[in-house]
Amino acid sequence: MPFRLPTAVLRFPRRYPLSWLVLLIPLSLTLYYNFGYLNQLAKYQITPAPSLSKEDPTTGNVQNTSTSSSAGDVLLVTALFPLVSSKYDLNSIKNLLQKIETEIYFFTTPEFEPTVRSYRGRLPITVDSTLSGPFDIPILENRVESYQDMQKKDRERSKHPPEVYAARNAKPYLLAEGLRRSEANGNSPKYVFWIDAESIEAKHAYKDWPSVHRLNSVWEEGRREGGARLEDMFFMPTWEMPHPSMSLWNEGMGPISSDFVDGSFFGGMPKAALWWERYFYAYHDFYLDQLRSFVGKDTSLMNSLVLLHPERIITVWHNDPKSPSRVDSIRNPAMKDLVLGDCGNTRRYFQFFLASESEQDAQRGRWDGAWNWRFWELERWFRRRESCRVTRVLPMEWLLRRPFGDMWRSPEASIRVS
Which chain regions cross the lipid bilayer (predicted)? Predict the structure, then answer.
């Protein structure tokens, strides 16, 4: 007589459908552990990232694979004005202050200065508490009324007080002013960068970041590919290409609201940082005073400036479909975050890109051994694992000719900034 399960047992899952979870969850975790996305056993499937390290053209030495100090060569500038918004993340700020050993110039309020100093500890920092808010900077101190009027054009005006616009648009000034004040104190950094205080990758292995040896290599590659002088090049990450229709854009059409460049990190050599300050505020005033445009989002203004002077911009684009480092097996657009392998939050790929070779290896180890709970995406379970790869630096003028065509030339700029 064939074996049959009791009727009560067969009816049980129908009466209590959630009981399936008792079976499915352990089964899913078992499959996930053995075949899943980011597990330790997958280290036997990981394809080592191709090495793109080259001889450092600035020093003539091979790029150092050990953590070496960039003290004095690189300056990071950032700011936090807590009164602007109550939504700042203290844990994210700790990722910058407690782990990155590069010199930092930090603008903040007198009330928040003790917190910044306690987070930083003995690591190098200059805390500047001479400003109580972004409207205290000379370029914006007379703009309160203009920004209040501009707020009426914001579709999310209830979430964005004028101080938020000012905090966004203060970045180029604070970058340049942090450089000026640092130089007045006897420092002479070779590179200076703005970084949003909350933008550092949560679980990172970066200390000597950005690596001066890596920066030297990136700048020389940018000069070789784009032709600009080293001291004139300005770096910012790219997120996505602008729509092909933007090939017809001109400065009279106003700032470009598009998810094009990333405004959380930008900079270069001192000359370029000072140029960006003059350039940014020249068009800020032009759009605000003459065209009455909305300039409350810094990246929209940055997008426009990049189209006007792409010859001075170098960038990195994680999603570059023509990258020589691209993983050929990733063809599903929904998995574009894996086109360079397992690289964590791809919005923060520029941090990996500018790290030293040894710290890139350490960060790969973190990503290769991490969990990701998107176990419902079955395609990720069975794919061949790939460690994060280093892509190339791109001259922006050359890059923009992909969506715009080879005959595209940057529109004429009526404002000249040297």
Answer: 20-38
